[in-house]
Amino acid sequence: MFILPGTTLSDRLKASLGALTGIILTGMLSAELLGHANSLVLPLLVAPMGAAAVLIFAVPASPLAQPWPVIGGNIISAIAGIAAARLIPNPALAAGIAVAAAITLMSLTRSLHPPGGAVALLCVLGGPSVSAAGFRFALIPVGLNCLLLVGFGLLYHRLASRHSYPHKPAPLTANTHRTADLPAPLRTGFRPEHIDAALADSGESFDISRDDLDRLLRRVEFHAAAQASQPLTCADIMSRDVIQIPEDATPAAARALLLNHDVRTLPVTDATGLVTGAIGLRELSRDPAGTLLTLMAPAITARPNQPASDLIAPLTDGSARAVIITNTTGRAQGIVTQTDLLAALANPFHQLKA
User: Fold this and answer.
1) What span, in angstroms and rounded, lies between the C-alpha atoms of 246 and 267?
2) What is the phi-psi region of residue 40: left when phi exceeds 0, alpha when psi lies from -120 to 50, beta otherwise?
3) What's the whole-model pTM score?
4) Cα–Cα distance measured from residue 344 to residue 232, given in angstroms and rounded to the nearest whole number
5) What whole-number distance in Å separates Cα of residue 181 and Cα of residue 76?
6) pLDDT (tens digit per residue) in 221-246
7) What is residue 338's three-state secondary structure?
8) With 0-12 CB in 10 A as exposed, 13-18 as middle and 19+ as buried, what is 289?
9) What does CATH list as the number for 237-346?
10) Could you tell me where in the chain the CATH 3.10.580.10 domains are found?
11) Per-residue pLDDT tens digits for 142-190
């Protein structure tokens, strides 16, 4: 399973091939352009370009991988690193300030690019040749490397991967009537302000543009609505990892299972695995000297393909706190509790009516 959702093995292999081509060509062309004029013996290909290549070729839709963050972010970070190295004698202190300044400046210029932190660090700790180059290092080789890598990225995605780069979110449905109204599909469901509120609630930063997030959520809404058009069954809402207890177990064992798993009902089964009853703390409290066979209540059961709405009556009339879902042979396949039913009733995409 890949870390990035929505990717395939083919995407990752194409990204690897793109990075291979991009880094080789960037290095070769940089050497051709700078090799004879490189009196300071500067690196012809700086190491942070490897990280930039991961973004450009593997996640071309990321806001951090777009041309301006790659080019502007790395050059700005290099300038921050060179300035820190010149103004602060202590290398460790200069390194920390360089990276912090790079993050601040990239954020202010909307060019945040993770490899920029490495570029800033390189400008502080890169050695005599980097130090002697001064601010020229920000343009050659850093700026040149970035321009070449982005250029190869543009060609590669256009000719080979077919991904959009620079990334442009697919447009949402347009109003073809040339009026001020929203298109019909956008008049219901969530609004842009709902996305903003959800992002504020999360308190996190996400590597996806707001427009892409809007489009993705609308596709999720579409697929959820399509599924909601199908009748909801017991199998759709049941818990499948059912905690069961054999009828020859002790009441103490049943009590321990109920408390350890924080459940209110356990199916009781016979030696062949068939459901013969149900037990909860209420039943266990009736007779301290009783056995499971004498204490258990009759099991309320249903079939997996039965409409989930059939469970409303038994779970709301006080007769049961859970319905055990059994197969045709009488073995437990799942369990639906009052909480499960309430969650289904509260879900706007479920066609479950009381």
Assistant:
1) 8
2) alpha
3) 0.65
4) 9
5) 43
6) 777 766 666 778 999 999 999 999 99
7) helix
8) exposed
9) 3.10.580.10
10) 237-346
11) 999 999 999 999 999 998 888 889 988 766 666 666 777 666 666 667 7
